[in-house]
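Methods, example record. To illustrate the input and output format used throughout this study, we show the complete record for Phosphoribosylformylglycinamidine synthase subunit PurQ. The sequence lines were provided to the predictor; the line carrying structure tokens was produced by it.
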Amino acid sequence: MPRRDNSLFSGLFFEKSAESDFSDFQLHKKINGFSGFQAQKLAKLKDDLALKMPVDELIELRKAFRKNPPTVMALKIIDDYRSSARACFTEELSEIRLSGGNPHIMKALKKYEELKKRFSPDTPRNISEIGLMTRNVAGREKESVFFGGGRTQAECETFDKGKRVGYYSSIITKWDEADLRAERRAAVEAVLYGFEPQAFFTDAADTTRMDEFNEYAESLAMAAYGYCRGTEKTVKATALGISEIPRIGSGMPDMGDKIILLQLKDVERAALTSLRQFLKEAGISVKRAINNDVGFLNGLFALNYGFDADVSETEIFGETGEELFLEKRVDLVTLVVRRGRVKQVLALTSKYGFAAAVVGRFTSRASFRLMNKGAELTSIDMAAIYYADYDFRNYNLGSVSEPYKIISAEADLKSMLKNVGDVGDMNACQGGKTVVGTLLGVSQNTASEAGVVKPGFSGFGNAVNAVSLAEPQTGGDIFTRAVNTALNAVMKLVATGISIYNIQLNPAFLLPEGSFERGKLLEYALGVFYLENALSLNSLGYGTARSKDISSPQLRMQATGYSGDGALIDGIFKSGYKIYKIGIPRDEFGIPDFKFILKLAAQININASTENLLAARLISGSVAEAVVAGTAGDRLGFSFSGKLSAQGENLSDLLLALDDAEEFAAFDPEYIGVVDDSGRIKSALFNVTHSELNRASARYPFELNPGQRTAAAPVTQKAVALRSHSVAMPKLMIIHDDFASEGAFIRAATEHGFAVSSLRISRDYVINAENLRSVRESILSSDMLVICGRNAYGTYSNCGKMAQLIKAPVVTDAINELLYRNEGLILSTGLGSKILGEMGLLSRGSAEYSGVSGISFSGKKRIDRSPKLPGIRISNHYSPMLSEVKLRGRYFVAPGGAEMGLRVEKNTLLELQTSGQIAAQFIDPTGMPTLAFPYNPFESDMAIAALSSPDGRVLGFFCLPEKTAFLRGGNDLIDIVFRSSYQYFSARG
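The corresponding predicted structure is encoded as:
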């Protein structure tokens, strides 16, 4: 076997052949020392070195190496390469270029140099990112190079440099269906180029080829790793990585050795140089150094120690590149430090500016313990879960923040969350650092602390992911107390106004193949995590054990839900209960609005002790339900449903048995019927049946045919209406029957300088002369009027009183004066737009008493509810309330009400289009206007989402942009509308 001499150039190999008495010096002398091309001497040399090439080719080789003779190993490698090559070796010799500066290293072939230039040698890349593969090579001139991970060449070369850890510019991998020439040639070129190769070979169909290549790799002193898995597809991938980090330490970890997570300042070449210096200075103190590019435990118990490159998960499974849950962190390094040397190593980390933390210790060679401030959190029995076929890359310990700190209490959590409160995403910290990491913990079925958690543990699979946010605990308390501490703090932050939109949890698979369906283990734990604390979750674990379909990153729950046609959940809703349904708003990804749920949960809790709220359950067709007891007593549950079907549907409504729905008016409960003796809903509106729910969960209707697409409304360039005088603090009046919308409007208006007053129209509101006069005076003293109605799921329980109020002549006169004498603005959503449209304000710009309408609305009931939020696109800037909105900007809104089926006569539609009054249109995911539900829930011929009056001073949305204002932070549509409106009032024509 060759040995490495670090005193010379990197990668020089010297060897005394085990098969002959020749040293490198003697070989040099023999090749250059004889004259006359004596064939017999070369023949003797061939026999002594057991070379396969004929003597005449050895003569040609001697000519090439006249001044730069090869080493014994190089000569053997050349001979082996020649024996596996298809073409005549003498033709290849003309392509060999020798290096005069280093007589012992033969440079790579010219063809390889050309290939290297094609892949931009100055662009850093690692084996996981590139994973070059060549398939179906018909000949030497027909190379077909593919990029692993589903990336194109351009994508690879523009890949985020912050995620690159190595410069593997000397990587070449070719695939040849006939023999192993491609792998061998890659290995030869790497060794001759002076690097340490590490080979990775995967072939799910043919283990013989893998074993053969591993034997060949051993002959070249290469670290070779083989993976052979039974998947649906035959996977063939070969990759060769060049390690640029020196190996360090030796042997397996011993009891007492500590585990340190080390974070680099960056991952460019300078950082690697610093790391190399750090490891050199650390010396004997560090036993092993493992790169976390492929997970915390990768290589920890591997046959070879040191930095391990690896083939990515996507390459192993032959998928198209979504590395969904691997949590690769190329800037993290795991150090196994000898006991008693921790202080020295930590001192060196400070010297080099690395962030570091002791996260655990080895209790034996087969197990280790994770630690939190010195307290042991949990023990992992490596012997129980380690066997030859298991892939350790799927393990994750978590991420290191800068500086590293394990969050230990609510105050720490609040401090950390404050940094991302304005951003709205827990993973949006500087440099992509994750604020909340994951730790391995043990779940405890403690209903009093974590609700009903029944993961159905089996065997040694008592491990689940839990966030590292608790006081130091031991045993089963880690899960319940960590989660409760963390989420209680989050809820308090939400209550104080800090906006947190999404907390991402990327749980790793925690159990080995075949022992347990790992998705089931996380379903209940993460379901309770969400339910108890009303947080939006994204990027959850797979729903099956080592799922072959890795394209479904949604939480899956055990199916209960409905049973039988129209039957309710057993024993929950009794005969005679009046059932109301509350829809839960969702974002573009189908993630529920956690603020809405927080308020709803609070209202449920308030009513739990009264006779008003009798029962509550989430229904969603065949979607599963996880019931969390404790929110409002054992008989009440509040549930979140994850993935509904293979088509990605996510449908959920909350059913409430209420005596009086007024307490929940802010959540727009829709009355759907009374429970009969058989346990079914008997509704005067419609019967909820199992088949209807199945139809509601049908495939999401992205456009099935071109006929569902319509042209975009043309943009009409007109001068925007201006005021004759400016207003320092414009006054806004809100008329509503929806507390949720009112809150969104008040927040946005006050932030942009409006003085706000509001009037709620409930079913108890009395319309008399005194109240009408008061409304008239309020409108006349205002500069802007907002009229908003219920959401998509609500039955308008004010019994038409809002329409009666607005259409009253005394109020209509005030609206006309507001528009034309005071040069004011009117904004409407939902039911408010329906009322203004019937009055002619949206089509003609003036209110009429006669009831003559420019546009009409249908009263069609929509049983099928879509979980996806409709998208709209702004068509023009004509209205002064849209002056700051990006033209053709896309926004996600809530649907309108069941009575909002917009009907526009063809001639009227053409007039609206020509005059530029189509302010917004419903769009499909590509941004194109569409007639398909739910993007056009009102079935308009032009997919109209908003209309404006001819002068733009009246703007009516037939959807509910205020319902999704929180999704966009400072960029949501309602915020921009009020910013535009304030500009209108502060400017002067």
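Annotations derived from this record:
Residues 477-495 form the longest helix (19 residues).
The two ends are 88 Å apart (CA to CA).
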